[in-house]
Amino acid sequence: VFWVWSDYFRRIMPKSNGQIATVVGGDLRWRSVDLAAPLALPPAERRILCLEQGPTLAYHLRRGSPLPDPVVASIRAAPPGWQWLIRLHPRMISNVSAFVEGMRRQGIENVLVEGPSLAPLSSCLESSDAVLTGFSAGAIEAHDAGLPVVLFEPMAQQLFREPIEAGAMQFSDDPAGIVAALAAAARHHQAPLIRRDRRLALAAMDEVLAMGAGLGKGAA
Known about the structure:
By secondary structure, this protein is α/β, with parallel strands linked by helices.
């Protein structure tokens, strides 16, 4: 049984004659937090959520820069009233302090890291106007939540070829193009997400866990 981020991932799961079951859900932390609650943030002209991948962040920390160059250049080129929410990959949470220090040394402002990194992804999406990422799978959930998505890593053109060609997401590796895309983007339709009904979410999770336990006993 696979608990997947969105219907997109359910559709691309490999077929195996009925041996694989999928449940669309997203973030699994329903039992301890309110996933629909937006973050408590100061006022901003526009909020951009940056989803960072673990390996990419580790590489940039080693080279002394906390963010990929296109993101740093975009932050510098964007209007001063914009606020940037940097969400580190869960595997990189221990690097928050080093990340913040690296941005301070580079003079990068209007950036929040710890709050967005520790909050559920859904809360970050509720609080944002657009999403910028290299190739994070969170781009799919962002799109499903109605947020415009801009991708900047070259491999994203292959990983997200279908939504880019359909116009559901945009690609640009040029800072001016990234800022222009983020400025022009507006929320679109919001797909019905299971997390909007907490009781249904918890019931679905219990059912998935029970199915998994049953499969485990069968294998034993």
